[in-house]
Specification:
single chain, about 280 residues, alpha/beta, Ubiquitin-like (UB roll), Rossmann fold, 10-stranded mixed β-sheet, 3-stranded mixed β-sheet, 5 helices, about 30% helix, elongated, FtsQ
């Protein structure tokens, strides 16, 4: 095998060399950036648009309301009064009118119906009142008048709840019972009246006067002329005792009895008519 040697005797070889250092690569040609439309948050945009429209609508509504308010809030031209008992007496209608006049020139929308109603219910003959608006410029008053169940003392009245009032719209009949007691016992006396009435009515007796005296003793007068002295304690127990003895011994003789004294622990005492108030004790 033949080889070419240099002057130094070594074999000659053709060696291809490259320059030292990193090689350079030509960059790619620059691309032109294309413009793109930014992404829109349609949900947020919708909310903003809705808020703007709401503000505009609210402003327009307030402006319209300011224009319409004087036209709607007219002075009251008429007050209508109705009662569940029929026509309200003229003097009572006048009292209602006077109470409403205390509020000055009432207007249809700005009038305080709650305050007016409270003022009307302070009238002694009014149990409940309800006020409503009637378009375009009227008020309607519906009155529930006090219903007297009994007289309280000489000049006052009691309703079914034992509440005292001072006026009535219609004069009650002569059958109205009279209840008497110390101040502040109105409800207690009324409850006792109902309890005694439930016992005496089936026996044919109607209470015309029930009295609670200062020391706590109870006295009953009936339309049939019978008086009952009940004492202070165990009233219902004494009445049950009376009904038992009444059915057993006294029923046929009640027309001759003027008074029954139930203040005994066991039994009762009977006072007879037209016999100088002689009493008989029944055990």
């Amino acid at each position: 095998m033949g080889m070419r040697t240099g002057n130094n005797g070594k074999a000659g070889m053709r060696v291809q060399t490259t320059p030292r250092g990193a090689s350079r690569v030509a960059p790619p040609p620059a691309r032109r950036r294309q413009w793109r439309m930014p992404r829109i948050n349609w949900r947020l945009a919708g909310r903003l648009l809705f808020a703007m429209l709401a503000v505009v609508a609210l402003g327009a509504g307030l402006q319209a309301w300011q224009v319409l308010w004087p036209q709607l809030d007219r002075p009251i031209s008429q007050v209508l009064v109705e009662s569940k008992l029929g026509e309200v007496a003229p003097q009572n209608q006048q009292q209602l009118q006077q109470e409403l006049e205390r509020f000055g020139e009432a207007r249809f929308l700005s009038a305080s119906l709650a305050a007016m109603q409270q003022a009307l219910e302070q009238l002694p003959w009014v149990d409940q009142a309800r006020i409503s608006r009637v378009w375009p410029d009227q008020l309607k008053i519906e009155v529930v008048e006090q219903q007297p169940i009994a007289r309280w003392g000489e000049q006052q009245w009691l309703n079914s709840r034992g509440q005292v009032f001072h006026g009535v719209t219609r004069a009650p009949g002569d059958t109205m019972p009279q209840l008497v007691g110390p101040e502040g016992t109105e409800e207690q006396v009324m409850q006792q009246y109902w309890s005694l009435t439930r016992i005496l009515r089936p026996m044919g007796y109607s209470i015309t006067r029930l009295e609670l005296r200062a020391r706590g003793s109870w006295f009953v007068h009936t339309r049939e002329g019978l008086e009952l002295l009940l004492g202070r304690d165990e009233i219902l127990e004494k009445m049950r005792r009376f009904t038992t003895i009444y059915e057993r011994e006294l029923k046929e003789q009640m027309k001759q009895i003027a008074r029954v004294d139930l203040r005994y622990a066991n039994g009762l005492a009977v006072a007879w008519r037209d016999e100088d108030n002689n009493e008989t004790t029944v055990q």
